[in-house]
């Protein structure tokens, strides 16, 4: 019975992932590449930087965003070089800050901001919230996704009104209105 329960959980997880893949505007191949870029990036950056900082890699449709903190400007440049060398990215946005690592309370506040932004995007009836990836670092919210210019402007406006958000940075890739399915709310 235990083995069957595990299989059931795997099947349910696979079905959920499959359902998410269907609503995602990225191709299955792009989604897989993004996961690979994030995993390779995390491993390589951790190895290259050691205790000099903590850098996170987020990829959406092969647009790579680096966030986090490092000790020196040289470490920031090293993070960019390492990421550029290992990824199959189309563009790289280095938003790493040169300063001491964020505190646990800042990390918790960032998680809370991310949750509130996602809730606000979901509540906006004219936005495809499932197409916007939200990353928060020290109060700065980064928005990524395949969206129309109208959707990007609306997502940025909604995000800017969320409590705790200090700055909004958009790293969107734009599609034409006719490429975007209608949003039902």
Structure, explained:
The chain is of the alpha/beta class. Helix content is 49%, strand content 24%. The chain has 5 helices and 7 strands. It has helices spanning 2-23, 28-49, 73-86, 104-123, 149-160; strands at residues 53-60, 63-70, 91-94, 97-98, 132-137, 140-147, 167-174. Strands 1, 2, 3 and 4 form a 4-stranded mixed beta sheet that branches. A 3-stranded mixed beta sheet has the order 5-6-7. Strand 2 (63-70), helix 3 and strand 3 (91-94) form a beta-alpha-beta unit. Helix 2 packs antiparallel against helix 3 (73-86). The chain starts with a helix and ends in an 11-residue tail after the last strand.
Helix content: 40-55%
What oligomeric state do the depicted chains represent? single chain
Tally of DSSP helical segments = 5
Give the H and E element order: HHEEHEEHEEHE
Shape: globular
Distance between the termini: 41 Å
Could you report the average pLDDT, rounded to the nearest whole number? 88
**Rounded radius of gyration (Å):** 18 Å
Largest sheet: 4 strands, mixed
User: Which blocks of ≥5 consecutive residues have pLDDT under 50?
Assistant: 9-20
How many β-strand stretches? 7
* Structural class by secondary-structure content: alpha/beta
Strand content: 15-25%
Key terms:
185 residues; 4-stranded mixed beta sheet; 3-stranded mixed beta sheet
Lay out the secondary structure.
Blueprint: H1 2-23, H2 28-49, E1 53-60, E2 63-70, H3 73-86, E3 91-94, E4 97-98, H4 104-123, E5 132-137, E6 140-147, H5 149-160, E7 167-174
Parallel strand pairs: 2-3, 2-4, 6-7
Antiparallel strand pairs: 1-2, 5-6
Helix pairs in contact: 2-3
């Amino acid at each position: 019975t235990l083995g069957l329960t595990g299989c059931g959980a795997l099947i349910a997880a696979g079905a959920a992932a499959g359902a998410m893949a269907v609503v995602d505007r990225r191709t299955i191949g792009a989604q897989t590449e993004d996961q690979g870029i994030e995993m390779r990036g995390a491993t390589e950056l951790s190895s290259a930087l050691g205790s000099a900082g903590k850098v996170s890699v987020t990829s959406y449709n092969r647009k790579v965003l680096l966030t986090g903190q490092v000790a020196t400007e040289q470490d920031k440049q090293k993070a960019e070089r390492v990421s550029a060398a290992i990824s199959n990215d189309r563009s790289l946005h280095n938003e790493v800050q040169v300063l001491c690592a964020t505190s646990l309370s800042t990390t918790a506040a960032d998680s809370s901001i991310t949750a509130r932004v996602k809730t606000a995007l979901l509540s906006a009836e004219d936005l495809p919230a499932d197409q916007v990836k939200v990353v928060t670092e020290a109060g700065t919210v980064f928005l990524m996704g395949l969206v129309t210019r109208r959707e990007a402007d609306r997502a940025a406006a909604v995000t800017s009104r969320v409590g705790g958000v200090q700055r909004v940075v958009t790293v969107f890739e734009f599609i034409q209105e006719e490429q975007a399915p209608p949003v039902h709310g």
